[in-house]
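Table S5 (text form). Sequence records supplied for joint modeling of the two-component complex.
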Amino acid sequence: MLFFSYFKDLVGREVTVELKNDLAIRGTLHSVDQYLNIKLENTRVVDQDKYPHMLSVRNCFIRGSVVRYVQLPPDGVDVDLLHDATRREARGG
Amino acid sequence: MVLGLREFTQRTGEGVGGPILDTDNGEELMRVQPFVSIVLGNRPPESHGSLYITSKQVIWLSDVDRAKGYAVDFFSLSLHAVSTDPEAYPSPCIYTQIESEADDGDDEDEESDLESGEVLDLSKVTEMRLVPSDASQLDTLFEMFCKCAELNPEPVEEEEGHNWVFSADQLENEGTGEDPGWHFFQDPTNSIGHSNGDHDLANTVLRLQINDQRFEDAEEMDQGNDSSHQ
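The corresponding structure-token record, covering 323 residues in total, follows.
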């Protein structure tokens, strides 16, 4: 829930999604759902030498369960808000 | 749960019609797209066939060879995308990555296996392209893939439910009529199909506060119950 809300605030921002199969895709975050499925637009593969055929796809849906990391824009993290929200989540659960 | 691509040969009408679906378990046909070629890994395209998107899986059936067909469950589709860059692939297509049982293996070995075209081991196919002859349908197909992917969350998650959102107090009071199957997350407005750009940080804080109020309500109710027992 927390990360769902959190990622929704990053909609429109540029993020890099790293998959469990080591593929890293950079793109504009279009949307995210409660399963943390991620839709990116204007995507490009970070390691283009390794994945030349995926050079560019227009839009891309990534299944939440295959995501290893999401790299955020540094200024996209409101640390205080995240601290507070994390504490609330911990208390609620 | 079987990961990866598999053969699909069960057709209606004595083997010449559409796919036989698992309607007993709620499988529904969502869309049919005729004249679609399929490309597995780096192999040459196989044409033409019909693409059947159901609520559970993607099925491609050859129009030429009635004994030929492939299927993959949505929970094995790691990623799908619209590919229109001719450098990526000459024809505009839906590009998919498939999570396979043999996913730990070396990708390069596997691709050279596929290229040699000797024996095709479907369980090792990690990429599939679907090339509709009508390229104007790509966006519609993409959206349908997204919709169906959301209908198929991780099976494990589904079994466990979302019990973790309950506080200990709530668990102790299960007999008070609270629906234990209550799904915290089922909010259709949060569908991935919608752009969520209107949610700013303040909105999130509000949302979290609302959640807290729910828990507070529950506690107040517990207190109410306690006092009625006294």
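Note: The beta strands of chain B are 5-7, 29-40, 46-54, 57-62, 69-73, 77-83, 93-98, 127-132.
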